[in-house]
Amino acid sequence: MCLLGINCTYAGKNNSNEKAIDLFQAGKGVAVCPEQLAGFTTPRVPAEISGDRVVNKEEQDVTRQFQKGVDEAVRLVQLAGCTRALLKARSPSCGSGKIYDGSFTHTEVDGDGLFAKKLKEIGIEVETEEG
Question: In degrees rounded to 5, what are phi and psi of residue 73?
Answer without folding.
Answer: -65, -40
